[in-house]
Specification:
Elements lengths: L2 H13 L2 H8 L3 H15 L4 E4 L2 E4 L1 H24 L7 E7 L3 H13 L5 E7 L2 H9 L5 E6 L4 H10 L2 E10 L1 E5 L20 E4 L22 E4 L2 H11 L2 E4 L5 H4 L3 E5 L5 E9 L6 H21 L13
Parallel strand pairs: 3-4, 3-5, 8-9
Antiparallel strand pairs: 1-2, 5-12, 6-12, 7-10, 7-11
Helix pairs in contact: 1-2, 1-4, 5-10
Length: 318
């Protein structure tokens, strides 16, 4: 296996066409095809399949290409630094389920650093896309939760996608709703009291299964469920329809405003929030710092849990 073969494979995946990739690489199409065939034979998998729609990447090929991209990028970085004497841009990207505290941690990280020479990306998205982004190297880290219901299935999915999950903290379940909601001033809420109000849930697209739901207790029977694609719409539905969602209880006034509260739900259920990364790949310097910032929320939870009035307050963290 050579670096040139890896570069060729990555370029084909980008162009989705053997002819376009050959033109971009300044090689003939037969020579490019022969190089990829040799590579596939050496590693024992089929990276690409050919169809009338062009080049398609196999599931095994996706895993291989995620590593190939890392090798090509690392080679380019070394070449820029040692041969062309360029200062490499520091990059950091994170994907997450819809957690305002994870966005707030990202903002804190960016503010700590000089923006010049940095390249950042944040993706607040569906559960399946969080996993896919980390698997394919679009994001270094993914912020996601597991609980007793989905743990076995999610860890199987993590393994299949060659990512590994590390817990950050465990928290109870809270009801997130508008501060004008009839239940907003309660010290805690029983599940039965939520029955008259619409339950709000984030749309998961093609992977819209109970296991991919961002909200815990997704298998419970609800009188009405309304799906939303983004956090802003979710907040509008809370205000306009007295809707609610179930969450970690860690909310961020700086981003969402002070018109919303998180009231503890009377349940023994918990959720474990953690991060995923590609298997065997340690976090970068920026990744480690981001995780340190997220660790502050763990301290906040521990402080609140030791407070005798914990069940009497809203779990506002920032």
């Amino acid at each position: 296996m050579t670096l040139q073969q890896l570069r060729y494979a990555v370029k084909i995946s980008e162009e989705k066409s053997m002819n376009k990739a050959a033109a971009a690489l300044y090689v003939s199409q037969p020579a490019l095809s022969a190089t990829i065939r040799d590579l596939e034979e050496e590693i024992g998998i089929e990276i690409f399949t050919r169809s009338n729609r062009g080049i398609l990447i196999t599931s095994e090929g996706e895993g291989f290409l995620s590593y190939a991209r890392q090798m090509v990028e690392l080679s380019q970085t070394m070449e820029d630094h040692y041969i062309h004497h360029k200062v490499a841009k520091q990059k950091f990207s994170v994907s997450m389920q819809h957690y305002s505290f994870a966005v707030e941690a990202f903002i804190t990280l960016v503010k700590e650093l000089e923006p010049e020479g940095m390249e950042f990306a944040v993706h607040e998205t569906k559960t399946g896309e969080v996993i896919e982004n980390v698997k394919n190297g679009r994001s270094e880290l993914g912020i996601i939760y597991v609980n007793d219901f989905n743990r076995k299935v999610m860890h199987k999915i993590f393994s299949e996608n060659e990512v590994e999950f590390t817990p950050l903290f465990t928290c109870g379940i809270s009801v997130y709703l508008s501060s004008t909601h009839p239940l907003a001033k309660r010290g805690s809420i029983r599940f039965e009291e939520l029955e008259p109000y619409p339950c709000l849930s984030f749309e998961q697209g093609e992977k819209n299964s109970f296991y991919f739901a961002e909200e815990v207790l997704s298998t419970r029977e609800y009188r009405q469920i309304i799906k939303a694609d983004d956090r802003a719409t979710m907040l509008n539905l809370m205000t306009g329809l007295d809707g609610y969602t179930l969450c970690s209880g860690i909310i961020c006034e700086k981003l969402n405003g002070d018109g919303y509260v998180a009231v503890p739900l009377e349940t023994d259920e918990t959720m474990e929030i953690g991060y995923i990364k590609r298997r065997g790949m340690p976090p970068s310097r920026l990744g480690k710092r981001y995780l340190e910032i997220l660790g502050r929320y763990h301290s906040d939870i521990d402080d609140s849990a030791s407070d005798p009035f914990y069940s009497e307050i809203n779990m506002k963290r920032l």
